[in-house]
Amino acid sequence: MRKEDKSTIISQLAETVKEYGHFYLIDVTAMDAAATTKLRRECFKKEVKMVVVKNTLLHKAFESLDTDFSPLYDCLKGTTAILFSNVANAPAKLIKDVANEGVPGLKAAYAEESFYIGANQLDALTSIKSKDEVIAEVIALLQSPAKNVVSALQSGANTLHGVLKTLGER
């Protein structure tokens, strides 16, 4: 591969890392062509971008960025694919659904500005809530006391109305 081609790939990888907020490094060494094709189809359905990369080029792309990705450098061994997503837990759920006997295996992930190293972090990654889910929970929590107050006022008004009506009939 020519030096110009390598520099183009490095810059494209760096731009893609900047574009997406979350990415996962997975080990695809043990996957055959059929399994890789199936994984790519599932990625497309879940709006996850999958790219098979050379470890040295990805390492250089990480070095060219402002963020310190040094915790991920030790994971860049073997055949590596990178899953890019705008939703933090989408690739983790995808890996969990598609994985059979640990293939594809999670090497590391960068989600919600945190590093997750090792396959044992998959459960933690699937439980990460997306920004929309957190906002929905906060709104529900904020609405709950207001609904209780309105409900109490309405039931009190109905009770008071009932008492006045009964007194008026007597």
Walkthrough of the structure:
- A five-stranded antiparallel sheet has the order 2-3-1-4-5.
- It has two domains: 3-128, Ribosomal protein L10, N-terminal RNA-binding domain (Alpha-Beta Plaits, 2-Layer Sandwich), CATH 3.30.70.1730; 129-170.
- With 170 residues, it is α+β, with helices and mostly antiparallel strands.
- It is built from six helices and five strands.
- Helix 1 (3-19) crosses helix 3 (55-63).
- It has helices spanning 3-19, 33-45, 55-63, 90-98, 122-126, 131-169; strands at 22-27, 49-53, 80-85, 105-111, 114-117.
What characteristics describe this protein?
170 residues; alpha+beta; Alpha-Beta Plaits; 2 domains
Fill in the CATH topology of the largest domain: Alpha-Beta Plaits
Helix fraction bin: 40-55%
Overall strand count:
5
Structural class assignment: alpha+beta
Specify Rg, calculated over alpha carbons: 25 Å
Question: Total helix count?
Answer: 6
| Strand order in the largest sheet | 2-3-1-4-5
The low-pLDDT segments are none
Distance between the termini: 99 Å
How would a textbook summarize the main sheet?
5 strands, antiparallel
The total tally of domains equals: 2
β-strand amount: 15-25%
Please, what is the CATH homologous superfamily of the largest domain?
Ribosomal protein L10, N-terminal RNA-binding domain
Mean pLDDT: 85
Q: How would you sum up the global shape?
A: elongated
Gross CATH architecture of the largest domain: 2-Layer Sandwich
In N-to-C order, the SSE pattern is HEHEHEHEEHH
